[in-house]
Amino acid sequence: MATRLTTQDATFYFLEASSTPMHLGSLAILESGISYEDLLTHVEQRLALVPRYRQRVREVALGLARPVWVDDREFDITYHVRRSALPRPGSDAQLHDLVARLTSRPLDRSRPLWEMYLVEGLSDNRVAIFTKSHSALVDGDKASEISQVLLDPSSTPRPVVDELWMPTREPREAELVLDALVEMIARPSEGAATLRMALGDLAGGAAEVAGNVAAVVRTAAVSAPTTPLNATISRNRRFATVRTELEDYRTVRRRFGCTVNDAILAVLTGALRNWLLSRGEPVTAYSTVRALVPMATYVSGGGAAEEIDMEADPAEREHIPDNAERKVSSLLVDLPVGEPNAVVRLSQIAHATEAHSRAGGTVTAQTLVRMSGTAPATLHAVGLRVASGLSQRMFNLMITNVPGPQSPLYLDGVRMLEMYPVSPLLKNQTLSVGLTSYDGRVYYGLNADRDAMSDVEVVTALLYESLEELLDACG
């Protein structure tokens, strides 16, 4: 029997619109060339570890039930792993333009919902690999993102057992309809919710997600402030990146007794403040921008949840019990863009995040966070699932800050130098910010609407200035 999409997966599948492609992106920069043929071989060897990447979505006639995952009997690895090139020597700006164009394109629903691009021609003999996977494909728990299994902790690829893949028989239409009717009789309320999703009423389909975020909703006002971060968006995108040193945030942490996560949010707040001023927007002492921010937390012995500062020094995390339940929690935090003083901004943010973690607001799926590092793209998917369960009127901006390993990773023996998340835009939200720490640095990926956020490069410059402002306050 075919596996049916979960309610959350089906919600993402039907949520997609021409202006809001619902795929997660990941951009990796490698230090030297890897051939297209070698990449094809490497990906094909690891596909057995992510079996859903060989499956496609098949809808049930008349929307009688949620769609099902079926093996793609015509699976063609060369369709999904593609080759592109920049005119040598390709610049980072040219790479970002290419990523923006690729991000703008929806995935082909008649095939498995993922694509990977090997981008050659970068300066200094570097290559880039851009991957996009549909949010229905990656749930952050049972279904992992493909980069999680492609990367190794050493230059010697870990051995993988060769498996001969034989696609299973695809169910006939009559079988799918019969299964759907039986399910509707057994669970009529679920059948009604599925019909609403298929007809475009996603509120019912998102109920499972929304129920998980009730604790967040109770801590916030009904509507977020009015900002230029919320407007009608197109399907076209702009992409920009920022690369910073993790030690800079640790310096702020030691000086002011906050967390690295707090320091990152303070840097973003300072940049957003100056961006609003550069646009001539009215900014008062009480102006805020409400962000939805996933955080790593842990619960031990039935106590309250506490935030895990995953970018802190490893020795500073030794107090966390081995048997602690590690989760990904999310909060709505009002970023104080009206506050002119960087230290006061940091203090207000630290107070808000500390109050949230002490309240025990673990509101998402119980996703493990390994102490030595994580699978960033997979955990960015968790943040997106939380966001989808809330009305977009409740927050202005989604910020996913996911810790990564602090030692080098390798793809088929080639060292990865940089990694940037590319989070999708939600309806009427012009900017999405994804962050990942890796090998001593913090990488920002800014995905923006091409028309409504044409000045996204201004934000990147202001992020560097905001970090310098905090560092100056330390010394």
TrEMBL record:
It comes from the Bacteria. Residues 327-470 form the O-acyltransferase WSD1 C-terminal domain. Pathway: Lipid metabolism; Glycerolipid metabolism; triacylglycerol biosynthesis. Its EC number is 2.3.1.20. It catalyses: an acyl-CoA + a 1,2-diacyl-sn-glycerol = a triacyl-sn-glycerol + CoA. GO terms for molecular function: acyltransferase activity. Pfam families: WS_DGAT_C, WS_DGAT_cat. Keywords: Acyltransferase, Glycerol metabolism, Lipid biosynthesis, Lipid metabolism, Transferase. Residues 5-263 form the O-acyltransferase WSD1-like N-terminal domain. Belongs to the long-chain O-acyltransferase family. PANTHER family: O-ACYLTRANSFERASE (WSD1-LIKE) FAMILY PROTEIN (PTHR31650), WAX ESTER SYNTHASE_DIACYLGLYCEROL ACYLTRANSFERASE 4-RELATED (PTHR31650:SF1). This is Diacylglycerol O-acyltransferase. It comes from Rhodococcus kronopolitis.
